[in-house]
Specification:
Length: 408
Amino acid sequence: MSNKSALHQLAEFKSLQPVFDELYKSSSLSQRQREDSNGESLQKIKKHSRQYLAYLSYEIKNESYQPSKLTPFFIKKDKKKYRIICAPTIRDKIIQKAILKILAEKNYSLENSISHGFMSGKGVKSALDQALELRIKYPFAFKTDIISFFDKIDRGILKEKIKHRIKLKSLHSLINLIVDTEIEELSQSSSLKIKSAGVKVGQGIRQGMPLSPYLSNLILEDFDKFLIDQNIKAVRYADDLIFFSDSFEKSKEQNALIQEALRKVNLSIPELEENKKSIIYKPDEEAEFLGLSIKPCKNKTYKLVMPEKTKNKIRDNLSNYRNLQYCLANNITISKLLKRLEATKGGYEQYYDSLLEMNEINPLYDILRDLKKNIIIDLMKSSLSPDIDYSKLSKNQKKFWEIDGFDF
């Protein structure tokens, strides 16, 4: 048994090299070539990885390592709000992944029976399967989510959890440095977007860091334990929560218990039916969870279906491509567009194919097929002629525009 501290074990070359190798192997060519905010890329580091990792090892062992600020990427949620995903530098990714590796080796797993987000062997499918199974037995469903979960995490409480839950004391300072990592404000515009997203310096942990999912589950470990001890029928996927019972009153009681339990870690859920973020579904109502609905069927059973608002969201996400000026402004030619549409179509199909029965997935195929058809038709009208007669196009012309399988 090694007498070295966990920090020194983590910092050894034989610990860091496999982490870098896996990071390199799992990255695409474009990801390997992409430079981070330090001007480093996986491809560059690969050429001198031994020296690079040796210096990183030196920094960790001598406790001179400081994480770099995070590069923000903004994903538009609506007209005014943005979701922020943060990119750490390559060296910071390596260190965080090395921490996760040693925590796993030392059996610091946070797995339990109700949590499915960021858990080994679990995911959206296991969460939905468990929710479906529970609703058949307990038909009242109380759906909610934790308000601004990652950005509201109390760092003081989290650091106490790290101190008492993770007995590897030599890692505490290093993990706390990562907890305190902030976003690089690159411009006045990015500063305004960060502020509008509700992100505050000194509060929360940033999404995009490899260690963030583990830390988010750590802050909720006692909450999960409380639900299990109270025999509350629950499924949690990160900040998305759904609870089941056999009466409306019991669902209301669950709401009160959950509010109280989350207050202990300075987190909260919306009030019941406030913007419908917190809502109790009766047995004859569809209950939405993780982008799907648990729909009532005959004989008091339920099935997973795609709700109309998800279908509309898919339509909205692709609608910009119907505009020729949008495509030109974004340097999207017909070849790029067709590749993008096919990749998007494949992504949706792959995701939902694993979650839905075939008779529920077929309408999605129809939606995606019709969207592709309408996008191409609109672009043909804009770029060729608004009076184009599709019935008179030759077979080769239809094949070129990839509309040879469509009915007009």
